[in-house]
Amino acid sequence: MRFYFFIIFRRCVFINKELQVNEEIRDKEVRLIDQDGKQIGIMSAKEAYKIAQERHLDLVKIAPQANPPVCKLMDFGKYRYELSKREKEAKKKQKVINVKEIRMSPTIEDHDFGVKLKSAIKFLKEGNKVKVTIRFRGREAAHTSLAEDLLKRFANELSEYGVIEKAPNMEGRNLMMVLTPKN
């Protein structure tokens, strides 16, 4: 006498951000809502899918956590199109702020300082943040107070265009400060 063991694997349904549509809905009972927002009632998923086919619409599960899950009759293609349109509109209104970096040395000359200042003003007027970095080479690192005075002077020159977000601080062999544009 032989015994055969059959192992039945069930397909795992992952919880994802996508909505379940039409045949993907495998619940026994669902609460059905019309495309106008009126409640039709609680029925089996097969009956709800038949109603959706009769009306030439899609059955979409909108609240899977509810008991029983809530499904709505809608044109799913139109719904996805409107959703993507809203996302694009939100993306247009979103403002991206970039961080522009200006590098100097503690022994910078006045003309070079003025050039760096003009570029920082331009960046702040565009609405970008400005990261001012002073690099120390060799024995320059012993005179950090000179570099701090230079950064304070730089911030004072830019006071009508921006404000200090992050005060000057040492990171390795660099002294850094971050400025943001004024509103």
Short note summarizing the structure:
The chain is of the alpha+beta class.
CATH homologous superfamily label of the largest domain: Translation initiation factor 3 (IF-3), C-terminal domain
Structural class determined from secondary elements: alpha+beta
Number of strands: 9
Largest sheet: 5 strands, mixed
Reported by name, the CATH topology of the largest domain is Translation Initiation Factor IF3
What pattern of helices and strands is seen along the backbone? EEEHEEHEHEHEE
Helix percentage: 25-40%
The best one-word shape is rod-shaped
> Mind telling me which CATH architecture of the largest domain this is?
2-Layer Sandwich
Number of domains: 2
Describe this structure as you would to a colleague:
The chain is of the alpha+beta class and 183 residues long. The chain has two domains: 1-81, Roll (Ubiquitin-like (UB roll)); 99-181, Translation initiation factor 3 (IF-3), C-terminal domain (Translation Initiation Factor IF3), CATH 3.30.110. Helix content is 32%, strand content 30%. It is built from four helices and nine strands. It has helices spanning 45-54, 76-93, 110-126, 144-157; strands at 20-21, 29-33, 39-44, 58-63, 70-74, 99-104, 129-135, 162-171, 174-181. Strands 1-4-5-2-3 form a five-stranded mixed beta sheet. Strands 6-7-9-8 form a four-stranded mixed beta sheet, with helices on one face. A hairpin with a 2-residue loop joins strand 8 and strand 9 (174-181). It is rod-shaped.
Features:
5-stranded mixed sheet, 2 domains, 30% strand, 183 residues, rod-shaped, 4-stranded mixed sheet, 32% helix, alpha+beta, Ubiquitin-like (UB roll), Translation Initiation Factor IF3
